[in-house]
Amino acid sequence: MATQSTTFKLNTGAEIPAVGFGTWQDKDAQEDAVTEALKAGYKHIDTARMFVSLPSPIPFCLLSVKYGTEPACGAAIKKSGIPRSTLFITTKLWNNSHHPSDVEPALDASLKDLGMDYVDLYLMHWPVAFGRGDSMIPKDDKGKTINGDTDYVDTWKAMEKVYKKGKAKAIGISNFSRKETERLIKETEVVPAAHQIEVHPYLQQNEACEWFRSKGIHVQQYSPFGNQNEIYSKGQNMAKLIDDPTLVAIAKKHNKKNGAQVALAWGIAQGHSVLPKSKTPSRIKDNLEGDFKLDEEDLEKLKGMDRKMRFNDPSGNFGFEFYVGEDGKGG
Questions:
Q1: Fewer CB within 10 A of the terminal residue: the chain, N end or C end?
Q2: What is the predicted pLDDT for the residue at 321?
Q3: Percent composition of the chain: helix, strand, coil (DSSP 3-state, to 5)
């Protein structure tokens, strides 16, 4: 089965490559990993100001803070010699910079680390504000998160301004519920171009994804391999999603190497962009080859894999209840 180079059109008119290279863990390995991804042919790189490993619930003192991968991504892109205009680069606003006066400086800091004067997509990473300041995760003397009082609607209005200035060619959200998104659309001017959420064959979120599409919001899948990510404690006592017999059988049918490629092809068939992560050169290349066409029989079988099983929910650690009303909440 031939590999494709699928793209999707955002509500801004911009084209986003269906397979993006996700960066998250192993910050020190990211420059080499992004270099390998660019060599393999990736045009879409997803990074962030901040990443947090949250196998919730855990004592907050054990939470693993990982500053973002922007500097490593920027260095790899610069060394590659690939023209900036041919790449699609995403980064994200972290929770301690939600106050309207902090949004543009936060983006400026990200652009400096990336070595760029714009990003193609700027996402609000979470719909919750932390206390303002230099601490990425401010805590009180009991180790509890200090939340800020900035409403995500006000944060979004500040993001609209950087969008209008051209520092972000598109703006979007991540980890929002439909209810939160509906309020955001109602009370602001710019409809999010994209929404990055956990979606994979075990958490298909069909109704939610269809709702986002109906609003003109493109869905991006983080953790497209589900519990393959080792930080998700919920998924460690079960077989890996990518080893599911249904995925493996379909991979064999199409002469593909593994179930991971089928999981990616399933996401693309839903009209989503997918963001696999790896630091292993062979897997980086294999994931890009997950852009291939599944037939209707395959898609019907994959539909039956939905367990409404969510692996990522940091509500307890962030002091905010995420995903209310959505599939996999509390399941």
A1: C
A2: 96
A3: 40, 15, 45
